[in-house]
Amino acid sequence: MDKIKNILDFSLLELGNTQVKVYTLVIILVIYLLTRVVLRIINKALGQKRLFKGLDDGTAYAVFQIIKYIVWLIAIGLILESIGVKLTLLIASSAALLVGVGLGLQQTFNDIISGIILLSERSIKLGDILEIDGDIVKVQVIGIRTSKGLNRDEITVIIPNSLITTNKVINWSHQSKKTRFKINIGVSYGSNIEKVIKVLESSVLEHSKIYNKNLIEARLVDFGASSIDFQVLFYSEDIFEIERVKSDIRRIIYLRLQENEITIPFPQMDLHLKSKEF
């Protein structure tokens, strides 16, 4: 027993009045392992909806991220205390340094605060489809400083959290997983309007990615310079791949218009020449 005590009391490093002994390393290791175990238990409990009922995956992820940062902050404080570093004295003695660092890392702190807001507010969750600066991304990770998303070209986009909280961001899946989209088409003058509407609606019906086929609606929207302009509206849950869906529908519409002898006109311009008599 005395041998074990002597081993634990053995000094590995001396920093002024502070000694780092073997038992200090043991305490640090225990704190680290306990922190990992506690976080794993919390994560599992959140995943199985034991802590809070009615949580979706995105909300559970946000709650866990907040808890994780708090637990690690407490663990780091305990580790510093075990080494002999007094946090109150450390903060007081480095106040001026912290001010300087804060000014230099102002944008970083802004991103961190924005990350805390995103995680606590839950206005954006994992799997949401966002439109940021004209780019469509699917949220994969919401971090404390940056978030990650996958765009339609399957490229990972790293987004500073402050960009999301301070700029105009469209969340296509915030209120509902289904969204209404539209396709515009113009046909030649002289075409049967009712027939065109029927062809457009039946063309959209042929696609498998349409949500609630009873909500498909074709409209006559305008009389253009060269065409009668229509618009067909439909709902889809495949928001991230909607451009591919719309491309497929356009191909179907084009074929069905051809089958029904309905033409899509070229832009036309009438040119009148007036001869000048001398």
TrEMBL record:
Mechanosensitive ion channel MscS domain residues: 108-174
Give a Pfam family name: MS_channel_2nd
Mechanosensitive ion channel transmembrane helices 2/3 domain: from which residue to which, for each copy?
A: 65-106
InterPro entries associated with the record: LSM_dom_sf (IPR010920), MS_channel_1st (IPR049142), MS_channel_C (IPR049278), MscS-like_channel (IPR052702), MscS_beta-dom_sf (IPR023408), MscS_channel_2nd (IPR006685), MscS_channel_C_sf (IPR011066), MscS_channel_TM-2 (IPR011014)
The Mechanosensitive ion channel MscS C-terminal domain, residue ranges: 182-263
The lineage's top-level taxon is Bacteria
Q: Which UniProt keywords apply?
A: Cell membrane, Membrane, Transmembrane, Transmembrane helix
Q: Known SUPFAM superfamilies for this protein?
A: Mechanosensitive channel protein MscS (YggB), C-terminal domain, Mechanosensitive channel protein MscS (YggB), transmembrane region, Sm-like ribonucleoproteins
Report how it sits in the membrane: Multi-pass membrane protein
Q: Which GO terms describe its cellular component?
A: plasma membrane
Residue ranges spanning the membrane: these are 20-39, 60-80, 86-105
UniProt-annotated location(s)? Cell membrane
Extract one GO molecular function annotation from the record. Answer: mechanosensitive monoatomic ion channel activity
Q: Which family does it belong to?
A: Belongs to the MscS (TC 1.A.23) family.
Name listed for the protein in its UniProt record: Mechanosensitive ion channel
